[in-house]
Amino acid sequence: MADETAPIWKRNLRVLSISVFFAGMGFSEIMPFLSLYIATLGNYSYSQLNFYSGIVFSVMYVVSAITSPYWGKLADQKGRKLMILRASLGMAIVIAAMGAVQNVWELMILRMLQGVFAGFVSNANALIATETPKKQAGSALGTMASGVTGGTLLGPLMGGALASMFSYRMTFFITGAILLMIFFACLFFVHEEGFVPVTDKKLDKASGVIHELDQPRVIFGLLITTMIIQAANNSINPIISLFIKELMHGGHGVTLVAGIVAALPGISTMVAAPLLGRLGDRIGTHKILIFGFLLQIACFIPSAFVTNPLQLGILRFIIGIGNASLFPQVQTLLTKNTPSMLTGRIFSWNQSFMYIGNIFGPLIGGAVAGCWDYAQVFLSTAGLVFINMVLFIFNVFHPLEQHKDN
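and the corresponding structure tokens:
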């Protein structure tokens, strides 16, 4: 799996990019049938099933947003590899255990524990970020983003196939086994080189961490950028299938077409992320982010006026390029503007802000669709992206340009 002649950071990149691919696949392959699985755990009414499904889906993100900063602090004190092993082993056990639950409350508790053990991808990114030469950080993190996106895309297809061939419960056991293999791959093939633990007591508190940052305004600007990126993406995702059904006037093949359209942004993100990462290393990562904002606005607005799924699919594919210009580049800028000893903490904060965006995005999309229509969701999301771009220019772009001039 690893070429012994390559630098350690390159070997780690190969192992972890493959690992996050399988982790993304494992995390996403249970999503298509989770609500159906809940329905087998009791005799629920339509409203009860929707309520329990919503709670079971969201509780993991709430718990992760709360616990991520603690794990980030521990990563800076004990090492990122240890946190990778903690997350992969914990998730393997918890997800496998979901296949043995007897009621929805047991499943809910395990989803909460899944949130406690979350952080595999963020800690893998933190390890790569700290060990990769900063001039190549964009390319490396783009490769990582491509890996997790590819796995997330394949996961629902794999999960649906496994559930059809075996059962819902067996799919949880298989997913747990995949995550266990990731644990052993990281245990034996990932090597954290030159880690210096943070022992300064003042860094136990957030105020101490902020004091150590050269440009705290830039860091918090990037965290807000992450939150709004996730909120914008997740305001659209829940209504895509319903919008396509409306465009097709309820005709045949809605499910297939919706699946294809939903997958298109991930495909373009997977291809574009490493390329844009390398370009950002050459011309400036913050410039790639501005391009991403403009590209998304230019696609979200006409998405409100499409008349068929083909037009929507083309725009969604281009939006995926915008996605590749945003989240991986935020992580690159965090890497380049954070002391290496605090990378774990800052990446964990970023994960918390990401989960907050995951929680509020669907609420925004649902509220807009309920008050108006699906087209207005795209227009409101374009407005959200514009606000994000303005905040980014004010909090990140201008301070970085001024710092470069000084």
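(Above: one complete record from the training split.) The chain has a mean pLDDT of 89.
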